[in-house]
Design a protein that fits this description.
Blueprint lengths: L6 H17 L3 E2 L3 H18 L13 H4 L9 H8 L7 E2 L1 H4 L15 H6 L16 E5 L5 E4 L16 E3 L2
Antiparallel strand pairs: 1-2, 3-4, 3-5
Helix pairs in contact: 1-2
């Protein structure tokens, strides 16, 4: 089965993702050719599975099993903080977007399938493991809350920098 993706569909989704990223303090990869191929992969996965699974990971075809890799995936923010890019390279840090840092290959954070299955409730819904390093951060300007190891580079609501976040709770 061949899946055909129209350039107009790539243009549309690329624009939607870029606008959403910019509003939320994220950056798409400045290599437009690469980014458009990743967008094509998202659209192929959407047609194939019914959801936009990460184009660089093997999706199962069962949405409940792949919730963690639906773009933007659960691993994006940790990858951006540590490596400056997400696993597939669609999202990059400000330093990478501005050419101050180069992209590098990063390791896969997604646990193996066997481990993911151990953390499921009846019905297939994931049980999120508690992680002692995950903190809750609060934007002192607008009150936005997020749970992650580090505060975001920019607040996705009001746009202030990470220095305006404080640990919450």
């Amino acid at each position: 089965m061949s899946i055909e993706i129209q350039e107009s569909d790539i243009d549309r989704l690329y624009g939607v993702l870029k606008e959403a990223a910019e509003k939320s303090g994220y950056y798409l990869n400045p290599d437009e050719e690469m980014t458009r191929e990743l967008v094509r992969g998202l659209l192929i996965n959407e047609q194939r599975y019914g959801y936009r699974a990460c184009p660089c990971r093997l999706a199962s075809g069962k949405k409940e099993d792949d919730m963690d890799i639906i773009c933007p995936c659960d691993y994006r923010d940790a990858d951006l903080s540590e490596y400056g890019t997400c696993y597939c390279g669609l999202y990059v840090s400000q330093e990478v977007a501005e050419g101050k840092k180069s992209m590098e290959s990063i390791p896969e954070r997604r646990p193996p399938e066997k481990e993911r299955r151990r953390h499921r409730m009846p019905g297939g819904f994931p049980i999120l493991p508690t992680h002692p390093r995950i903190l809750v951060w609060r934007c002192r300007v607008c009150g936005y809350l997020c749970a992650r190891e580090e505060p975001p580079e920019k607040c996705p609501i009001c746009g202030v920098g990470r220095e305006r976040f404080e640990q919450f709770g």
